[in-house]
Amino acid sequence: MVAGLITAAVALGAPASTSVTVGNAAPTITNVAITQSPMVMTENTTASINVTADIADGNGCADVFSSGTMTGVLFRSGIAATSSCTQDARNCYRFTFTTTSAAGPCTGGTDTAMTVSSSIPVWYFADATDASSSLGYSAQWWAAYVAATDFVASSSNATSGTAVELSTLLGLQVTAAINYGVVAANANTGATNQVATTTNTGNSKLDIEFSGTNMTGPATIAAAQQKFGTTSVTYASLSYTLSTSAALQQMNMGIAVTSTAPFASGTYWGIAIPNGQVNGSYTGTNTFTAVWSSN
Questions:
Q1: Domains observed in the chain
Q2: 138 Cβ partners below 8 Å, 6+ apart?
Q3: Do 94 and 87 form a contact (C-beta atoms < 8 A)?
Q4: Does residue 230 register a pLDDT over 90?
Q5: Is the pLDDT confidence value at 237 over 60?
Q6: 3-state DSSP assignment of residue 225
Q7: 22, 25, 84, 294: most buried, per Cβ within 10 A?
Q8: Distance CA 66, CA 183 (A)
Q9: How does the average pLDDT of the chain come out, rounded?
């Protein structure tokens, strides 16, 4: 018997289509940090304080960096509702991230992660939280809150995990000169006081230590011939006599609350010229030293 040739037909199936919708992934935030610890202020101006964070988005970092928002708050921990606190130069700084860090930029495409960084100008009178805080905030600290929103309004937030102190700063600025003008020998300035304006340029309540040198010229005028007080009165009624040794006076100087309203106060000065004092011009130096106060 001769075997027959058997053939089989194979039927090809119709092609199957595939589809998927890529859902949105909310951004994630990690490693929120204040890079300066402690935060040290600069007298009578702002100090640059840096906040950094790592932000990722599964749909690509451009979802947040190019099409969303990245915001932050630098705040004292005792402030309620930290994510929505009102901008206040003493304790709440709201800011927006506008650039990514060179160490971790958003390059677009499939890049999902970036490091953001912002430099916040913090005013000299921001609330101190160290052990010397004259406002009683030594049990508190400063922290940073960061929020990110992508292009479809999905969002997340995170707060720095490390407590950072803001250091106490003692600062004082004083009128450049006290010029008594012409005063005759065996006379004093009477009710004509010279005003020395003192301005608190730090973030602590202050008292002041006063001292001065003897004035020199054709002869010497003792420092004790100068008197001062906190109100404008006659020379004889001025409260304090200047000494060459530092003497503490309770001036109860408060702290600025805004950058346009520094805390300033005046001291009123007079001088008596002894009988027989040689004619001529005399000069000296009076020193005002800021001293921490809790009053």
A1: 28-159 (2.60.40), 172-292 (2.60.40)
A2: 129, 130, 131, 132
A3: yes
A4: yes
A5: yes
A6: helix
A7: 25
A8: 71
A9: 93
Rg of the chain's alpha carbons, rounded to an integer? Answer: 34
With cut-offs at 50, 70 and 90, classify the pLDDT of residue 168: very high
For residues 10 and 151, what is the distance between their CA atoms, to the nearest angstrom?
51
Q: What single DSSP character describes residue 166?
A: B
Show the tokens assigned to 49. 């304080």
Measured between alpha carbons, how far is 251 from 198 in angstroms, rounded to an integer? 10
Q: Among all chains, which residue has been given the structure tokens 């304790």?
A: 91
User: CB within 8 A of 137, min separation 6: which ones?
Assistant: 76, 78, 127, 128, 129
Q: What does the DSSP 8-state code read for residue 63?
A: H
Of all residues in the chain, the percent with pLDDT exceeding 70 is 95
Q: How far is CA 83 from CA 145, 224, 257, in A?
A: 7, 56, 22
Distance (Å, rounded) from C-alpha 73 to C-alpha 83? 7
Contact by Cβ (8 Å): 18, 137: no
Alpha helices in the chain (DSSP H): 62-65
- Indicate the SS3 state at residue 83: helix
Asked if 29 and 53 touch (Cβ cutoff 8 Å), the reply is yes
Helices (H) and strands (E) counted in the chain, each on its own, are 1, 18
Backbone angles phi, psi at 232, to 5 degrees: -85, 110
Task: Confirm if 149 and 94 have CB atoms less than 8 A apart.
Answer: no
Q: Which two tokens stand for residue 119?
A: 């430099």
> Which of 261, 255, 256, 258 has its CA nearest to residue 134?
255
Q: Please tell me the distance from the alpha carbon of residue 186 to that of residue 278, in angstroms, as a whole number.
A: 11
pTM of the predicted model as reported, rounded to 2 decimal places: 0.88
